[in-house]
User: Which sequence fits this backbone?
């Protein structure tokens, strides 16, 4: 998935599907995840759908709230 920076497409720093999978595996609703992260439900929804990028700091918050390693949530990049 990509995000737009200006008129340029940039890859996301996270895997939206991995975020949703980890949330479901943890047994959390989007609103409970948002509460644990102290962010809006809208932000969690946008991250899961790939409409918004999860910054490295946000990935740390997600991993902590989901009790999973950050690497699970990060986008895998080609070498």
Assistant:
């Amino acid at each position: 998935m990509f995000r737009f920076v200006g008129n340029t497409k940039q890859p996301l720093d996270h895997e939206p599907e991995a975020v949703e999978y980890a949330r479901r595996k943890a047994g959390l609703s989007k609103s409970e995840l948002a509460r644990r992260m102290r962010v809006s439900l809208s932000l969690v929804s946008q991250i899961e759908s790939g409409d918004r990028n999860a910054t490295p700091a946000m990935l740390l918050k997600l991993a902590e709230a989901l009790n999973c390693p950050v690497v699970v949530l990060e986008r895998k990049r080609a070498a």
